Amino acid sequence: MEEQRLRIAIQKSGRLSDGSLELLKACGLTISRGRDKLYARVAEMPIDILLVRDDDIPGFIADGVCDVGVIGENVFEEWRLSDGNHSAADIIERLGFSRCRLALAVANAEEYTSIKDLEGRRVATSYPAILKEFLSKAGVSAHIVKMEGSVEVAPRIKVADAICDIVSTGATLEANGLKLAETIFQSEAVLVRNALSLSPEKQSIFEALLVRIRGVLQSRESKYVMMNAPRASVEAIREILPGAEAPTILELAGQPDKVAIHAVCRESVFWSTLEKLKKEGAKAILVLPIEKMML
Could you give the maximum distance between any two Cα atoms of the chain, in Å? Predict the structure, then answer.
């Protein structure tokens, strides 16, 4: 009987591809690429990876060509709103990298007060479905001009009065004489699964991979905090530690009035947190990264 292998689609190049491969590597997977650079095989688990255009990933998953994919949520949402077969794929996990936003922008000389200013005007975008839904909910009727690339030049060449495009830093808008008007969609990398046709064997592989992925994501957000503190301050310190469950309390040899406190904090530990701990008498405070975590 032929071995069942889970097929994962990721973007073939770019920031999203780099983040996807880094995530899989952090899950303990060794990826061997083929000569054509479009196919890869995982050594530790029965997983194959297809490196494809991001626009193709939702359709590949819905059609069963791939079982799982990593894609920008903006691309998935555009496909979901445009394609009649959207029920065949669903988001399982938000992955926390490749964050960006889909935003409206107008020329610097334009006065913009609200979305109502776009009534009856032309807006160029590569995401017509997301824009159409946003405008519809806002009760605004505008003419959507679909463009596949270089959307930011549309106002300058008189193709449109405004644009709707992906914005990361805003530098591209500034370079083209545009200003941010309104954010309409927040995006990040997401893990998408075929919702209909995973075999029991592939479902088992996927669940094992998902445990690793969630462990990596949790470890990136978490920190291991250690300190010495007065025994009387333990309860106050527990209240200060962000996202920590019951900490481990250890006796300090020869110091009955002091203890060592070890805790896993699942939220960010800021300098202000350390300052609060110090006010409660904590000393020798260490904040360490966590390489792996399994919940």
Answer: 79
Task: Say whether pLDDT at 8 is over 60.
Answer: yes
Tens of pLDDT, residue by residue over 43-97, are 899 999 999 998 899 989 988 889 999 999 999 999 988 876 666 788 999 999 9
Does pLDDT of 166 surpass 70? yes
Q: Are the CB atoms for 156 and 78 separated by under 8 Å? A: no
Name residue 90's beta-bridge partners.
193
CB 194 within 8 A of CB 89: yes
- Residue pointed to by tokens 């824009």: 131
Per-residue pLDDT, 243? 76
Q: What is the mean pLDDT of the chain?
A: 88
For the beta carbon of residue 181, count every other beta carbon within 10 angstroms.
21
The predicted pLDDT at position 64 comes to 86
* Separation CA 57–CA 205 (nearest Å): 20
Of the candidates 175, 181, 131, 122, the residue with the CA atom closest to the CA atom of residue 153: 175
Closest of 77, 79, 130, 67 to residue 103, by C-alpha: 130
Cα–Cα distance between 85 and 45 in angstroms, integer? 30
CA distance 155 to 167: 16
Position 1 scores a pLDDT of: 45
Alpha carbon distance 70, 231 (integer Å): 47
First to last CA, the chain: 34
Tell which wins on pLDDT, 238 or 292: 238
Q: Is 49 exposed, middle or buried (0-12, 13-18, 19+ CB in 10 A)?
A: buried
